[in-house]
């Protein structure tokens, strides 16, 4: 990829996102002819602001369009290396792993998965990538039966972090493995459908993401209000939220709102999942182009006690994602403040995650006089203004 001209890189990533030239042009507010000329090299992409717009629509870091030497920056190199190690681990078929070495102690493995979960929840993504290969290998050597939930959780965590780092197809594979581990258990299947929905959305397959998550949610949904176990309700709500996000990305406002309302109806009114539903409402409003509603809902959310119940990773990711809503309403200072807050919580969300770097570039471009702290963050991260 590093030797390809910019236009060819645009065409490559557009194909990866399963967008036609017309759809891509519509999202950019350009003509199909303009896109065709860019991809053929007839028209140069020589303005930084335009490059950022293109990268934002493609959901990639602008550096992927302009880098010449293949470097990813000092903070992102360990993440890139870690993704490749996980890729190698996922390439080994699980059926070949059971016959070698001693069985894994399920008690010890449970503790390791819990540690991996805490690592992800605190936004230590590179550390999780280091843990991932051994978790995968040892998970398929678990002694005794009934260990599906632990191996499934390992696959879920790996899929989640791969989505964050822009490896959608690899995340898709990990999530698909999780779904296979779930077997006939509807709760485990719903839990596996969540990262699968994320991976499909990141790959530009919103319809497939919606269908996968809505089917999983319906299989575990309680038959009456207040029915079902807490695990069933939580799994159902999580799958419904993914369905809502997929519908919003496809521009289907009514379906997205219906899914959000269904998720809110499943969980306890004052339960810990309430903040996750509220965060999803912010995200869907932003995806649907309603920046003002997204900003108002976001500011209400961070002022609510439920905000602190979200994992640090979730809060930081939300702050990165809401940047677009602030920019849509012309509030560059609000966008910069959200990114600085995210960086304080989980530096990797802004410094390593492609979406965070793209958001940082957008906030800098929109600010006539950027906050000095934002400029320092950009310098440390290697994001050019």
Automatic annotation (TrEMBL):
Gene Ontology MF, one: DNA binding
Entries under SUPFAM superfamilies matching the protein: lambda repressor-like DNA-binding domains
Domain HTH cro/C1-type positions: 10-65
Gene3D superfamilies per the UniProt record, alphabetical: lambda repressor-like DNA-binding domains
Top-level division of the source organism's lineage: Bacteria
Transmembrane segments: none
Name of the featured protein: HTH cro/C1-type domain-containing protein
């Amino acid at each position: 990829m590093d030797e390809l001209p910019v236009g060819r890189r645009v065409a490559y990533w557009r194909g990866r996102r399963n967008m036609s030239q017309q759809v891509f042009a519509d999202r950019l507010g350009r003509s199909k002819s303009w896109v065709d000329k860019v991809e053929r090299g007839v028209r140069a992409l020589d303005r930084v602001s335009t490059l950022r717009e293109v990268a934002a629509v493609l959901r990639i870091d602008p550096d992927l369009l302009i880098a010449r030497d293949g470097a990813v920056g000092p903070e992102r190199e360990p993440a890139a290396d870690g993704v490749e190690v996980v890729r190698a681990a996922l390439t080994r078929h699980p059926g070949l792993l059971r016959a070698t070495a001693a069985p894994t102690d399920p008690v010890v493995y449970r503790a390791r998965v819990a540690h991996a979960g805490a690592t992800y929840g605190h936004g230590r993504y590179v550390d999780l990538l280091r843990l991932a290969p051994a978790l995968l290998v040892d998970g398929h050597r678990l002694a005794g039966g009934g260990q599906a939930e632990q191996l499934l959780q390992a696959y879920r965590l790996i899929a989640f972090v791969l989505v964050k780092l822009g490896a959608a197809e690899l995340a898709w594979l990990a999530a698909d493995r999780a779904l296979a581990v779930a077997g006939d258990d509807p709760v485990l299947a719903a839990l596996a459908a969540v990262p699968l929905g994320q991976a499909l959305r990141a790959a530009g397959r919103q319809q497939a993401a919606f269908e996968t998550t809505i089917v999983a949610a319906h299989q575990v949904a309680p038959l009456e209000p207040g029915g079902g176990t807490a695990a069933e309700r939580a799994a159902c709500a999580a799958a419904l939220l993914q369905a809502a996000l997929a519908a919003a990305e496809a521009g289907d406002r009514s379906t997205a709102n219906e899914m959000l309302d269904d998720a809110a109806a499943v969980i306890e009114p004052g339960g810990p999942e309430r903040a996750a539903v509220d965060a999803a409402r912010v995200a869907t409003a932003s995806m649907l182009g309603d920046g003002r509603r997204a900003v108002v809902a976001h500011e209400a959310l961070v002022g609510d006690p439920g905000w602190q119940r979200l994992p640090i990773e979730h809060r930081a990711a939300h702050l990165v994602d809401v940047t677009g809503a602030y920019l849509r309403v012309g509030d560059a200072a609000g966008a910069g403040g959200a990114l600085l807050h995210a960086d304080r919580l989980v530096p990797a969300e802004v410094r390593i995650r492609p979406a965070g770097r793209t958001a940082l570039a957008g906030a800098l471009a929109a600010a006539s006089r950027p906050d000095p702290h934002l400029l320092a963050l950009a310098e440390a991260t290697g994001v050019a203004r």
